[in-house]
Design brief:
This protein has 195 residues and is an alpha+beta fold. The chain has 2 domains: 1-44; 49-193, no CATH class. It contains 1 helix and 10 strands, in the order αββββββββββ. The chain has a 6-stranded antiparallel sheet with strand order 1-2-3-6-7-8, with no helix packed on it. A hairpin with a 2-residue loop joins strand 1 (49-56) and strand 2 (59-66).
Length: 195
Protein backbone atom coordinates (compact mmCIF):
# COMPACT_ATOMS: atom_id res chain seq x y z
CA UNK A 1 0.00 0.00 0.00
CA UNK A 2 2.88 2.33 0.86
CA UNK A 3 4.49 1.58 -2.53
CA UNK A 4 1.19 2.24 -4.32
CA UNK A 5 0.79 5.62 -2.58
CA UNK A 6 4.40 6.51 -3.42
CA UNK A 7 3.85 5.51 -7.07
CA UNK A 8 0.68 7.68 -7.31
CA UNK A 9 2.48 10.68 -5.75
CA UNK A 10 5.38 10.27 -8.22
CA UNK A 11 3.01 10.03 -11.20
CA UNK A 12 1.09 13.14 -10.10
CA UNK A 13 4.38 15.04 -9.67
CA UNK A 14 5.61 14.03 -13.16
CA UNK A 15 2.23 14.96 -14.72
CA UNK A 16 2.28 18.31 -12.90
CA UNK A 17 5.82 19.05 -14.14
CA UNK A 18 4.83 18.18 -17.73
CA UNK A 19 1.84 20.55 -17.54
CA UNK A 20 4.04 23.37 -16.23
CA UNK A 21 6.59 22.73 -18.98
CA UNK A 22 3.85 22.59 -21.63
CA UNK A 23 2.32 25.81 -20.31
CA UNK A 24 5.76 27.52 -20.36
CA UNK A 25 6.31 26.37 -23.97
CA UNK A 26 2.86 27.70 -24.92
CA UNK A 27 3.63 31.03 -23.26
CA UNK A 28 6.95 31.26 -25.09
CA UNK A 29 5.23 30.34 -28.35
CA UNK A 30 2.55 32.98 -27.83
CA UNK A 31 5.22 35.51 -26.90
CA UNK A 32 7.09 34.68 -30.13
CA UNK A 33 3.90 35.20 -32.17
CA UNK A 34 3.39 38.62 -30.59
CA UNK A 35 7.02 39.54 -31.31
CA UNK A 36 6.70 38.33 -34.93
CA UNK A 37 3.56 40.47 -35.41
CA UNK A 38 5.34 43.56 -34.05
CA UNK A 39 8.34 42.85 -36.30
CA UNK A 40 6.02 42.39 -39.31
CA UNK A 41 4.48 45.80 -38.62
CA UNK A 42 7.96 47.33 -38.29
CA UNK A 43 9.03 45.75 -41.60
CA UNK A 44 6.24 47.47 -43.54
CA UNK A 45 7.98 48.73 -46.71
CA UNK A 46 9.09 52.36 -46.61
CA UNK A 47 8.42 52.69 -50.35
CA UNK A 48 5.44 50.40 -51.07
CA UNK A 49 4.70 49.19 -54.59
CA UNK A 50 1.86 51.24 -56.12
CA UNK A 51 0.08 51.56 -59.42
CA UNK A 52 -2.53 53.69 -61.08
CA UNK A 53 -4.45 53.22 -64.29
CA UNK A 54 -7.34 54.59 -66.28
CA UNK A 55 -9.35 53.97 -69.42
CA UNK A 56 -9.43 56.99 -71.71
CA UNK A 57 -11.81 55.98 -74.49
CA UNK A 58 -10.42 52.59 -75.53
CA UNK A 59 -6.88 53.41 -74.35
CA UNK A 60 -5.71 51.71 -71.16
CA UNK A 61 -2.90 53.66 -69.47
CA UNK A 62 -1.08 52.05 -66.55
CA UNK A 63 1.71 53.46 -64.33
CA UNK A 64 3.66 51.20 -61.95
CA UNK A 65 5.99 52.66 -59.30
CA UNK A 66 7.33 52.46 -55.75
CA UNK A 67 5.95 55.19 -53.50
CA UNK A 68 8.53 56.61 -51.06
CA UNK A 69 7.47 58.84 -48.18
CA UNK A 70 8.77 62.27 -47.23
CA UNK A 71 9.28 61.26 -43.57
CA UNK A 72 10.40 64.77 -42.57
CA UNK A 73 13.18 64.94 -45.17
CA UNK A 74 14.00 67.58 -47.78
CA UNK A 75 13.22 65.71 -50.99
CA UNK A 76 14.00 67.84 -54.04
CA UNK A 77 17.43 69.41 -53.79
CA UNK A 78 18.12 67.02 -50.88
CA UNK A 79 17.34 63.31 -51.14
CA UNK A 80 16.73 63.72 -54.89
CA UNK A 81 19.46 65.96 -56.27
CA UNK A 82 18.76 68.76 -58.70
CA UNK A 83 19.95 68.44 -62.30
CA UNK A 84 20.41 64.65 -62.06
CA UNK A 85 18.39 61.85 -63.64
CA UNK A 86 15.82 60.41 -61.21
CA UNK A 87 13.76 57.23 -61.79
CA UNK A 88 10.69 59.13 -60.56
CA UNK A 89 10.07 56.63 -57.75
CA UNK A 90 12.10 54.26 -55.58
CA UNK A 91 13.80 50.92 -56.25
CA UNK A 92 12.93 49.83 -59.81
CA UNK A 93 12.36 52.52 -62.42
CA UNK A 94 8.79 53.79 -62.72
CA UNK A 95 7.13 52.52 -65.89
CA UNK A 96 4.20 53.57 -68.03
CA UNK A 97 2.28 51.28 -70.38
CA UNK A 98 -0.30 52.15 -73.03
CA UNK A 99 -2.21 49.93 -75.44
CA UNK A 100 -2.77 52.84 -77.87
CA UNK A 101 -0.45 55.40 -79.44
CA UNK A 102 -0.44 58.65 -77.46
CA UNK A 103 0.47 62.21 -78.41
CA UNK A 104 2.58 63.84 -75.69
CA UNK A 105 4.10 67.28 -76.18
CA UNK A 106 3.33 67.09 -79.91
CA UNK A 107 5.21 63.78 -80.34
CA UNK A 108 3.91 60.24 -80.81
CA UNK A 109 4.49 57.69 -78.08
CA UNK A 110 3.83 54.32 -79.77
CA UNK A 111 1.81 51.80 -77.78
CA UNK A 112 4.07 49.82 -75.44
CA UNK A 113 5.88 49.91 -72.11
CA UNK A 114 8.34 52.66 -71.15
CA UNK A 115 10.53 53.84 -68.30
CA UNK A 116 9.51 57.20 -66.84
CA UNK A 117 12.38 59.46 -65.70
CA UNK A 118 12.77 63.09 -64.74
CA UNK A 119 15.54 65.58 -64.10
CA UNK A 120 14.36 67.75 -61.19
CA UNK A 121 15.53 71.34 -61.16
CA UNK A 122 14.95 74.59 -59.28
CA UNK A 123 13.22 75.79 -62.46
CA UNK A 124 11.73 73.69 -65.24
CA UNK A 125 12.03 69.90 -64.97
CA UNK A 126 12.86 67.54 -67.83
CA UNK A 127 10.57 64.53 -68.37
CA UNK A 128 11.92 61.54 -70.28
CA UNK A 129 9.92 58.56 -71.54
CA UNK A 130 12.50 55.88 -72.29
CA UNK A 131 12.56 52.51 -74.11
CA UNK A 132 14.35 50.82 -71.18
CA UNK A 133 11.49 50.31 -68.70
CA UNK A 134 12.95 47.39 -66.76
CA UNK A 135 15.92 48.59 -64.73
CA UNK A 136 16.91 49.17 -61.13
CA UNK A 137 16.72 52.87 -60.39
CA UNK A 138 18.48 54.78 -63.13
CA UNK A 139 21.44 52.38 -63.35
CA UNK A 140 21.04 51.68 -67.06
CA UNK A 141 19.41 54.94 -68.11
CA UNK A 142 20.68 56.11 -71.50
CA UNK A 143 19.49 59.34 -73.11
CA UNK A 144 19.75 57.67 -76.55
CA UNK A 145 16.81 55.43 -75.54
CA UNK A 146 14.48 58.40 -74.88
CA UNK A 147 11.40 58.23 -77.09
CA UNK A 148 10.04 61.57 -75.85
CA UNK A 149 11.86 64.24 -73.85
CA UNK A 150 10.39 67.61 -72.88
CA UNK A 151 10.53 70.41 -70.29
CA UNK A 152 7.74 71.05 -67.82
CA UNK A 153 7.14 73.71 -65.17
CA UNK A 154 6.18 72.16 -61.82
CA UNK A 155 3.55 73.66 -59.54
CA UNK A 156 4.49 74.16 -55.90
CA UNK A 157 2.17 73.77 -52.93
CA UNK A 158 2.41 74.62 -49.25
CA UNK A 159 0.74 71.29 -48.47
CA UNK A 160 2.95 68.22 -48.39
CA UNK A 161 2.05 65.07 -50.34
CA UNK A 162 3.60 62.51 -47.96
CA UNK A 163 3.86 59.60 -50.42
CA UNK A 164 4.77 59.89 -54.09
CA UNK A 165 1.54 59.62 -56.07
CA UNK A 166 0.83 59.26 -59.78
CA UNK A 167 -2.59 59.77 -61.37
CA UNK A 168 -4.01 59.25 -64.85
CA UNK A 169 -6.87 61.74 -65.18
CA UNK A 170 -9.55 61.54 -67.86
CA UNK A 171 -10.53 64.80 -69.56
CA UNK A 172 -12.73 63.14 -72.22
CA UNK A 173 -12.67 59.99 -74.41
CA UNK A 174 -9.77 61.35 -76.45
CA UNK A 175 -7.52 63.04 -73.88
CA UNK A 176 -6.30 63.15 -70.32
CA UNK A 177 -3.42 64.16 -68.07
CA UNK A 178 -0.70 62.32 -66.20
CA UNK A 179 0.35 63.80 -62.88
CA UNK A 180 3.02 63.09 -60.29
CA UNK A 181 3.00 64.69 -56.83
CA UNK A 182 5.45 64.35 -53.95
CA UNK A 183 6.52 66.63 -51.13
CA UNK A 184 5.49 70.15 -52.27
CA UNK A 185 5.95 69.53 -56.02
CA UNK A 186 3.42 68.50 -58.65
CA UNK A 187 4.06 67.78 -62.32
CA UNK A 188 1.17 67.41 -64.75
CA UNK A 189 1.12 67.13 -68.52
CA UNK A 190 -1.61 66.44 -71.07
CA UNK A 191 -1.81 63.64 -73.61
CA UNK A 192 -4.19 62.72 -76.42
CA UNK A 193 -5.08 59.39 -77.98
CA UNK A 194 -3.68 59.24 -81.52
CA UNK A 195 -6.40 58.67 -84.13
Amino acid sequence: MKNLTLLIVMMLTIASCKNEKSSTVKQKHNHNNATEKVEEQKKKPLSPHSETMAMIGDAHIHIDYSSPGVRGRIIFGGLVGYDQVWQAGAHMATWLETNKDLIINGETLPKGKYGFFTIPSKGDWTVMINKNWEQHGKDEYNEKDDVIRFKITPTLSEEITEHLEYKVNKINDKSGTISMAWEKVKLEFPFAIKK
